[in-house]
PDZ domain-containing protein (Sphingopyxis lindanitolerans), 609 residues
Amino acid sequence: MIRWMSARSMPLLPETLPAPRGWALTVYTAAWIVLMATTIAITGINAWRGSKPIEYGWLNYGVSADNSNQHITIVTGAEAIAQGIKVDDAILAIGGVPTAKIGTDYNAAREALARPEGATLVLTLQDAGGQVRTHRLTRSIANTRESERTRTLGVAIDLLVNIATLCAATLLFRRRREPVPAILALAFVLSVIGPSWQATVWLDRPWLIDSLALLNLLSWPLLVLGLLVFPDGRMGSRMAWAIAGAIVLWTAFTLTNRFAAITVSIVAIIVFLALSVARLLLRYRRMPPGIERQQVRWGIFGLAAGGICLMISGGLILAAGRIGGAAYWQLQLASGVVGLLATFCMVGGLLISLMRYRLYDAEAAISRSVAYGALTVALLAIFAGTERVIELLGEDYFGHGLGALAGGLAAAAAMISPLHHRVSHWAERRFQNHLIQLRHGLPLLVGDLRETAGLERLAAAVLDAVLKGIRSKHAALLVGDAIEGAKGLPAQDVEAWLAAWAPPAGDALDCDRRDPLFPVRVPLDADGHGRIGWLLIGPRPDGSFFGKDEREALAEIADPVARAVDIVRTREAREAKQESRLAALAERLHGLESLLATVIGERRAAPAE
């Protein structure tokens, strides 16, 4: 059902995007299936053509140039490095022919570079200082060996990216009756529909290549629109509609002006993504605890982790271009691997969120990711800093570079344990504070309540803390055979469940993932008194099972809760016995008072007779 925004906010516009229904759903389904089949075919062609050896041009000589053949962009060959060729050197002539005469055509440049194996190519270059130099480079297959290996692995990485994206699109397509999954399922398919360079040459169909390129361009506006209304399709403000309108205008501009789109699309994509993510963060801060908040948290985590990976990947590409040499191909490969990780993070975060799968594991995932990321950065900084300090102190004392390297590794190894301890505890306090409160706060609370409160109040405090700490839908406290407390469900449901449950004899957590009411049962054992009772835990709001951290926290609180329950029960029994004795004593005193009053009355009446 479409909700319409009030006149005060934005009249005549729906508050939520309409989901595909009826004929629209049929058209969407047919279009998605056709595009999916096309993308699968293009992915197969990309992998097939990418596995074939390619004809290199500049790289045969250990260098590479920009598309216009005006400047050197990569220096990887040992011969080129030895001759002092640098990135950004201007190319004046190739084989004695001025580049102005050769032109910027790719085929013309390839003909100018054509030489047999072992032949020499004469290059005339001009460095940044204006000095003109002539270099003689030998064509050698050794110059392209690392490139070919890296290219082959790059094809495999691209294939994995495409497969992961298409799998995510297929899963989201199953929820196509919801607006956001429908938008992102289409965006994911279109994002990988473009052919590679080798596939483009093999297809040799300009109209087909242009059509696929246009479809590929549509993936970005769809992705931004999906993030703008994530996760429920709700607009809710003028700002959201303004951004959506700008996205539509940008899409129209992109489709009608391809050349201009190349120059502005990157900036536009960054701006629209930033606006969409900013609105998502604002919505997250206003959301009450619940499933929708957890969905947004997973989405933000995936985008943030993927964004960090993309920045690292881009940094590796820039570093590869500047460093050159043999390290160039290793850095390029590392950039591809990190880019693959970025895809997994972004697509995985959105997929988990929209499929509502294990939403309440977000805090644990964020905590561990931040902890390991911070630990890695800290260790790298310690290693680099220590190595540099040793170099400054003097390599003569440490055996040249080997001593500095060994010292840096030793310092990093010595700091692993304390850094891991500190970073892990910081991440837990920052992202899993609810579990820390359960682990450390509940034992202190029951330690105070057991001396003054009754069993009913103690049970209520324990259940409240458990529900808040692990975000369970409901819970119950069983003492002996009696239900002392139940939160989130009526006691009758607990009684019906108990009638069919046979308590196990072990002292470990009793877990049954298939149980819809109480999948986790925590035994409460007190030293010297045996089994006191059970803490019965219901599932999470999304129906998923509890993670390792939650189960460990429940196991940790079992002993203090059991001791508190046992002490309260013993104290209440003792107090009840004392009250019974006092009541009996009071009754006897009352009887004595009555008897004494009768005797006194009789004696006062005796003289009158």
